[in-house]
Design brief:
Blueprint lengths: L5 H12 L16 H4 L3 H15 L7 H4 L3 H15 L1
Length: 85
């Protein structure tokens, strides 16, 4: 099974939102809402689409609106990856 980590998620969020790689997300961010981290629904939509394409995983359409924190999105990704294993 492919491991998808918080580090991987942050890298993809940055790429899909067009951020500089130098921007640091310090501290514990697993339970910080995406909007407080500076990511809107468009950034999440682009990130989810990229994850689906790159990892060949199918995520529910609602994941963009229902996953409000990195922890929630990582759980959805883990479930999707487990389903394809």
């Amino acid at each position: 099974m492919t491991e998808f980590t918080l580090k991987t998620l942050i890298e993809l969020l940055r790429e899909c939102a067009g951020e500089d790689e130098g921007v640091e997300l310090d501290g514990e961010i697993l339970d910080v809402p995406f909007d407080e981290l500076g990511y809107d629904s468009l950034a999440l939509f682009n990130t989810v689409a990229r994850i689906e394409r790159d990892y060949r995983v199918s995520l529910p359409d609602e994941v963009v609106t229902e996953a409000r924190t990195p922890r929630e999105l990582l759980a959805e990704i883990a479930a999707g990856l487990a389903a394809v294993s």
